Fold ABC transporter permease.
Amino acid sequence: MSNWVDSTNVFSLLFFFMIYACLGWLLENTYNYIINRKFVKDNFFIGPFKPMYGFAPILLLLMLSPNMHLLTVLMLYLVIPTIIEYVSGWLLFTFFRRKYWDYSKQKFQLHGHICLPFSICWMVLSYACLHWLHLIFVMIYGKVDFLWPWMAPFVMIYLLAELIFAIRRNLLIQSPANEPNPVQ
């Protein structure tokens, strides 16, 4: 955990956000392939990333400290990704009438946006990411950190353009001439 505090400047956070968002996209599409035999799942964004998977580790990196009790850490690993998943699902449905996932048939679910079995998965994934993978990403960032201040503005412009186009595309899909998507 000592590497976490050293790796929380704005540039490194953006770097880690992109890494985890891309890994989230890969994880979801791999899961979708295993379940549905189709690799690419319908996505809010066109690019190969899922922001939910980027925000959770970043918030955890900012909230955790080396001297935190293990139970507190595990609770944060459970709660933070679950809150992000709920808010994401709620926002997507409220503003775009689109559901990209639906847990309504699962036990211990809330509004179809979150459920206990997946929250436990998020806790395990958070632990694995921040205790094993993150150390590798810190080392990788250490090798490219001199380039990142110049690359970061381009990444930010790309993310902003993706967001604008995604909002526009999803608002057009929601127009009266089109039906909202069925739950996937």
